[in-house]
Amino acid sequence: MGIKIKLAAVAMSILVISGCSNNSQSDDEKNHPTMNHNMEEMDHSTMGDMMEGHMSHDEVVLLNDSTGENELKIPTLLSRDNEEDIVYTVRAQKGKTEIVDGTKTNTYGYNGSFLGPMLRFEKGDTVKIRTINELDEETTFHWHGLEVAADADGGPHDALQPGEEKVIEFEVTQEASTLWFNPHPHGKTSEQVYNGLAGLIYIDDENSKSLQLPNVYGENDVPLIFQDRVFDDENQLNYKSVMNEDGTIGDTLLINGTLNPKLTVNKEKVRLRLLNGSNARNYTFKLNTGDSFVQIATDGGFLNEPVTLNEVTLTPSERAEIVVDFSKLDNGSDLALINEEGTILLPFELSDAGGKVTKVPGVMNDFSLSDEEINLPVTKKIELFGMMNMVSINGKKFDPERIDFTQQQGVTEVWEIYNKPDMMGGMIHPFHIHGAQFKIISRNGETPPENERGWKDSISVAPDETVKIAIQFKHKGVYMFHCHILEHEDNGMMGQVKVE
């Protein structure tokens, strides 16, 4: 019944558009002339493909439960090449990885065959990174959430050809946070991430060291990179065969590249750094026991106070740090991290050992949103619209030669982001801005929830929702802003802001 209703709605929309084609343009047509023209010209086959793609987000394919047969892999900490200059070398490589027992899967990775290491910076560091492209195709090295000059950001303008390398240098000026890095070549990002290009960045500062939070990497401070994939009959990641223009979604979950993972923990507080590294899938994380946990950080830093939650939702590229107190959970029961459908994402195995005594302090940060920022006028309006390969921002697709906005370095402005429903109702668009962290002022005019009152670089925007943010760029140059459904990004749902 739902399919028939949607089909009728689509057909009616096309008839309305066609019937009005000889009249004066509506506001929507003025804003999206290319979009509307293409919709008039669509044949039944195209409409069928669009419905199938869009519906995959209304009726998302379920993930398989983790069997818990493999201990979770922990990304290695990348060693410095030169202690004095703080030089790292990061290589984009291709290789073969045994994700499924007994099979070598063709994959991409950083400094290895699949995914990448963790880079650890400290606030105040001057960092040099040598990036090398050892792939057979162009790529970039984008430092997601890092506040760096545009020529070090790794956007689509900074593509390295096979065999090329580039050294970037920057000072770490932002507070403790969990960031990540990934490729960003225009039109190729989704496939390269899908094949395995993703890695972690930790930033530490004096505040994070003083908080006495769980901080033993890989033991009670554990990164979790969630990515859904589809394996073909030969256990390969055949992206082109499963690619969906509206966002590629799989039935098999990998966490840190581990299939059917489990995490063994001691009876202590454990800090989980959650990263939605998927191309398009949204995750709502909860404990299968119904127990609560506390969120301590957003994308770009600590919350002022821990927020007690029973679940937290992350759209692609968003991060959250949570603390689960396993000393208070029954080790006789089957403990697991699950999603909104009840799928077992990550089983926990409690050891008999007691862990370190740590605490979650009542005050962790001094993040603030001033009255002045709240009352600033809106200077930039973003309208997210469309589906499949017909997505746009403000009625336009990405043009590397076009600057969509300008903003002054060091000046805070308010951006208003609106997700305009399409003829099938619309879908959530995760919106990301390069080179800066921002503050959420409001969602549909209301104060954001407590766990979003911290630094962000990506934000979920639901259909017909309007979000206002306050953003300031520390560096000059041209930065991207885009939907972080990677197929939408590749299809041109991206713009540019020039910071002068």
UniProtKB/TrEMBL annotation:
<dbReference type="Pfam" id="PF00394">
    <property type="entry name" value="Cu-oxidase"/>
</dbReference>
<dbReference type="InterPro" id="IPR011707">
    <property type="entry name" value="Cu-oxidase-like_N"/>
</dbReference>
<keyword id="KW-0560">Oxidoreductase</keyword>
<keyword id="KW-0732">Signal</keyword>
<dbReference type="InterPro" id="IPR001117">
    <property type="entry name" value="Cu-oxidase_2nd"/>
</dbReference>
<feature type="domain" description="Plastocyanin-like">
    <location>
        <begin position="375"/>
        <end position="500"/>
    </location>
</feature>
<keyword id="KW-0479">Metal-binding</keyword>
<feature type="domain" description="Plastocyanin-like">
    <location>
        <begin position="246"/>
        <end position="328"/>
    </location>
</feature>
<dbReference type="InterPro" id="IPR045087">
    <property type="entry name" value="Cu-oxidase_fam"/>
</dbReference>
<protein>
    <submittedName>
        <fullName>Multicopper oxidase domain-containing protein</fullName>
    </submittedName>
</protein>
<dbReference type="InterPro" id="IPR002355">
    <property type="entry name" value="Cu_oxidase_Cu_BS"/>
</dbReference>
<comment type="similarity">
    <text>Belongs to the multicopper oxidase family.</text>
</comment>
<feature type="domain" description="Plastocyanin-like">
    <location>
        <begin position="93"/>
        <end position="207"/>
    </location>
</feature>
<feature type="signal peptide">
    <location>
        <begin position="1"/>
        <end position="26"/>
    </location>
</feature>
<dbReference type="Pfam" id="PF07732">
    <property type="entry name" value="Cu-oxidase_3"/>
</dbReference>
<dbReference type="InterPro" id="IPR011706">
    <property type="entry name" value="Cu-oxidase_C"/>
</dbReference>
<dbReference type="InterPro" id="IPR008972">
    <property type="entry name" value="Cupredoxin"/>
</dbReference>
<dbReference type="Pfam" id="PF07731">
    <property type="entry name" value="Cu-oxidase_2"/>
</dbReference>
